[in-house]
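Q: Protein A?
A:
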Amino acid sequence: MADQEQTTTFRIRDLWTDAMRRIIATQDRFESRIRDLQNTAGSSFNNIRNRLDRFAGRHMDVINDIVGEIPGANRAIGLLANPYVAAGAAALAFGTAAVKATQYAQQWEGKMAEANVTAKLSRKELKGLSDDLLKIGGRNVGELMEVPATFNSLLSADLSVEESLKALEPSLRAAKAGFTDAATAAQAGVGVMNSSGESITKVFDVLFATVDKGAAEFADIARYLPKIIPNARAAGLALDETAGAWAFLTSQGIKSEQATTLMENAIKTLSSKDRISDFNKLGVAIFDQKGKILPLTSIIEQLSKKLDGLTDKEKIAKLGSLGLDQQAATAFNIMVQDVDKLKEAIDTTTNSAGAADQAYKDAAQSGDSWAIVGNKMLVIWEKFGEQFLPIVEKTGQWVLDTINYFEKLNEESIVFRDYLSALGEGFNYLFKIATAPLQIIWNQFNNISRLIDVVSDKLGLSGGKFEVMYLKARPGLIWIWEILKQIGDVAGKILSGDIPGMIKAFKEFKLPSLEELIDKQQKELAGKWVDRVKDVTQPGKSLTPAKTNPYSGLDLSGMGGKDKGSGKSGGGVSGGGGVKNITITIQQLLPGMTVNATQVTEAAGEIGRMIQEELVKMISDTTLVVE
């Protein structure tokens, strides 16, 4: 069989051609190169892996130290590696975010409800208004939650919802450009708008042109300029020239409040029939041929020409002939000093279109973009929270309806009230069952106490005599208890097979000293008595002269106690049957006392204090021994 296989193999080899042999040789060389490449690559990868391992080894301790400094970091990383825990953490984070977003949405809803007291919109209309305010607030840098309050301020200024909505964004931008709060900017804009009849855009342009040409902050302009606009409009002066003249006065070193007073009096002059007549007599026209008041710059130019070339004394006389009060005279005198600058200021406020936008751009800061991003995120946050408001509302309504239902049922249904009463009794019964073991223990303690009282009465041991009898027997009982504990310890070692422990327990076994137990109890009882005496001798308390030791009747002589003082068994302080009362004669203390006082009451108080201190000291230093 082997020869046949060999013959077959030989025949197959005979079939190999030169080409096939070359192919086989090439394949062998290819496989050899592949093996070499694998070995080289494996070595390279192993080298890289070893380097990474060494790197990790060098830095792992540092990484662990950093993680260890973060409370709970190791546990958090380990937990998050678990997909179920990670999913739970994500759900918890989502729930927390939902609660926070809902709270923010409720806060926004409260602000909108406050504005709706004035707006009086339907629920659907209020929702649309809320969306509009969110859009406006989201593209401005002011705090988003201030937007509804600013809108409410505009509504409160007797503007309609549409007018307030148009004035809102200019007010927010004016607040940013004027570095003030939105409510102040809104009130200033609306106040000037209502008194001047100009649009809100025109008003803010004029106000910021006033900031440009004057020497006052926007907050001052917002506060004072609205005060003079109504009278200026009544006199026929336009908003822009009134604001320009006010800005000119502030640029001359006049404070905002004083400039307001000067302008008010100057405007009253131009509204007075007598003063207008005096101006005409001087050759200064106030009105044109159609009866319309001339521009303020024209009036001041005429007055300046009439005063040109005059001495200061003559100027004062000319102005005095106009019948002006001091404030009005000061205002006109300042304006005629520099007519060109006055015209420049009024020209700036007159041609103020775009001033508010330019001020907004000039007030830009590096963090404004992030402030807008933050507001846009808050808008998304509020929208997210809105999705849960219906759930909150429905849940709250369901709870309220449930409470109302049961309240009504309790009021109207006797059956329900009886059911509640029975339910309460049931819970009370269950509570009693649950606490029955404790109650049994408590009752047994009470029964034992009552039994002791009865036995004491029968044996004539009432009035503390039973306690005295127990104290006599107590050292012996403790002696027996200590022996039983040692026997129990030995028995436990034997049962548990603890041979070394058993041997040690046998070696350490000894009878307790009854004398030591008696002495220990004597010291405890004596200490208790000393503490009680000290307590009644504290300031504000009285010491009863016949106060006696309640343990003085205790006699432990039969138990083998030793008298530390006399050497007799069962001795006391000076022998006998118990703790002796200590008698201290007050006269013995007096020779050592010297009292200096200017009044009788002081002397009496000082003597009392010294006696009390000496008594306490002597009692504290006295050693009481119980027989």
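Q: Protein B?
A:
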Amino acid sequence: MSPDSDATYTVFARRYRPVVFDEVVGQEHVAQTLKNAISDARVGHAYLFAGPRGVGKTSTARLFAKALNCEKGPTSDPCGKCDACVRTQDGTDSDVVEMDAASNRSVEDARSLRDGVRYAPLKSRFKIYIIDEAHMLTREAFNTLLKTLEEPPPHVKFIFATTELHKLPDTIVSRCQRFDFRRITTGDIVKRLQQVAKGEKLTIAEEVLAAVARAGRGSMRDAESILDQLVAFKPKGLNSKDVAQMLGATSDEQLGVLVRALRDGSPGRVLTTLDTVFAGGIDPAAFTDQFIDHVRLLLLLRACGRTSTVIDLPDALLGDADQQAQLFSIEAILYFMQLLLEARRRIKEGTSPRIVLEVTLVKMSKVGDLVSLAEALKTGSLPAAAPAPVKRAAPVADERPPVSALTEIAKHEDEPEPEAVAIPADLQGIVSQWPKVATEVKAKSMLPGALLGAGRPIRLHGEEIEFQLGPNMTTFHADQLNQPKNKTIIESVLHAVLGRRYSLHVVVEGSGGGSPGAPSPLFASKPAPTKDLAADPKVKKIMDSFPGSRIVGIE
């Protein structure tokens, strides 16, 4: 290509801008509304186009201006051949003013615009102001435009475009007809890229265009720019690996190898694959983001199925990803996502990226060694690797454990409910009714009910039942039974089933029991003062400041 042709080269993103409303991709709702407004002579004086970058806001604004000023118009189908259409399409029409608010944001710029509004258009039917990145205008500049924007001259139209709608004053938004532009789906971007490839007489496989579309992340302009760069990188014989290499990303094949190494529980293969990724010059932070997106795809496939509209990926690329998704349970994929999000946080904090990723992926490869709490309760023993995920899943204040290792306790089989409902007078009677107690508590709150079913009453001290958890239980499980909300549920069920009001004293097998008067090793009540604190001058002074106060214990 000659230097002269280099100087006149137009990138794909500009060369293939839509020239009629029917070519607008992904924003059909906007195009149809504008066409109807023109056809019905209901064109407003101010419009607001809001949405992510690269989704067609400015292109649609130019197309709208062309439709209003076309010699055939106003028309919903501009000819594209008259002087007004050509000038607008080329950006040379003096009556279609495109202003970048990022560099013309001051009150002086707004005053200049306001003063220019009063003059009639030179050649066209309307004088149209397209204000890009409108959120960059200062508040004073917006205030200057308020009156003009509300009641402009009949020959003036305003079109604001912004990526950050929340930064615009309500007084501006309320004076405009607002259109929300959405991210463009991968499928729609692929269709448009196929048109570009056909126009450029290029033969590019669909999986390559799909990889480019995914890299665009919902932005048509970004996808077209990537394709433009890719064609310059390798005009013929493009494949998905070329896309990954140019973008500094990992290929889908490498991601598949890594996922299968995780499934096989092979830390060696995991670390070898990761080393291959880094040897290709991939940035660890970028790889982490890419792998998070891939794991999210597996989650969507596992939870919703490949036919779901939630999955934004062409069918041709779903086969291998769907096979990978079926290798894991939803709980395992959620565990992967938790580890990866934590790894990304630590990488951004400056921790050694490679070490963080290596440790994270090795943890992920050991997911097969983790055992749910329900399974541990059935077998009566906890493997060495199990306590970590169980403790990590300690429930918060609402007592709903967030990690599957605890929520799976719902699968713990209930023991058969006894037929007799006699009111017990001794420990034997309480033991006979205990399955029913556990079942009714479980109906109200899953976790404490399952834990009651995993232990047994061992002593009765008046109105206090001493309840023993198995040796595979920990203080964490005992803490759950002692939480105020759970204690209230348990004691109400005890009263309903046993016919008397009982309190529960919890011990763990092997930790020692205790008499009702002795403090529980797990839930010790506040100890009595070990010395006469009331005689201490400092304590006495505090107690004098709060009449009626008393010492209840030392902590």
